[in-house]
Amino acid sequence: MQLSTREVQCPRCAERASVRVPDEDVELKIGRSVAAFGESTTVTCSNGHRYWVYFC
Prior knowledge:
This protein has 56 residues and is mainly beta. The protein has strands at residues 4-9, 16-21, 28-31, 40-44, 50-55. The protein has one domain. The chain is 0% helix and 48% strand. It is globular.
């Protein structure tokens, strides 16, 4: 399995960050809180804002 990288935007300050995604075709959803289930990764932007990226 080869991981791809996609760019996401912080929901608070619009700072951009790169995240690794499990599949090129996956849809990304940004959230400010963790969900009880589902595949996700945590991102902290350069301004210290923490958010979650969900792979749908």
